[in-house]
Design a protein that fits this description.
By secondary structure, the chain is mostly beta strands. 0% of the residues lie in helices and 57% in strands. It is built from no helices and eleven strands. It has strands at residues 4-7, 10-13, 18-24, 33-39, 46-52, 57-59, 67-72, 77-82, 91-102, 105-110, 114-119. A hairpin with a 4-residue loop joins strand 7 and strand 8 (77-82). It is globular.
Length: 120
């Protein structure tokens, strides 16, 4: 059981920056990929960014060039740096850990979510 605790959400003006952090309860070496997802009111949860154990990253098109995901294995933390924020980035942001428990059986763990509100 991987527990994830997010921090760093809040209210920011458009054009501003926020940094989200996700702390895992176990070594993230054991986790195949970690990432951030977001869910705006009335919309489905969508991928924002992911980073694999090997350090490969993937971003949703609308955040490319503005958001950066990174991981600190020693601190068991994944960080999402968000710059040039827009009103449409407003959502609850969730940390995700994707772990393959046994070959062929992946499992997703989720944090409780942190609210990001961007005022225009």
């Amino acid at each position: 059981q991987v527990q994830l605790v997010e921090s760093g959400g809040g209210l920011v003006q458009a054009g501003g920056s926020l940094t989200l952090s996700c702390a895992a309860s176990e070594s993230i070496f054991s986790i195949n990929a970690m990432g951030w997802y977001r869910q705006a009111p009335g919309k489905q949860r969508q991928l924002v960014a992911t980073i694999t154990r090997g350090g490969s990253t993937n971003y949703e098109d609308s955040v490319k060039g503005r958001f950066t995901i990174s991981r600190d294995n020693a601190k068991r933390t994944v960080v999402l740096q968000m710059n040039s924020l827009k009103a449409e980035d407003t959502a609850v942001y969730y940390c995700n850990a994707h772990k393959i428990l046994v070959p062929g059986y992946p499992y997703d763990y989720w944090g409780q979510g942190t609210q990001v509100t961007v005022s225009s």
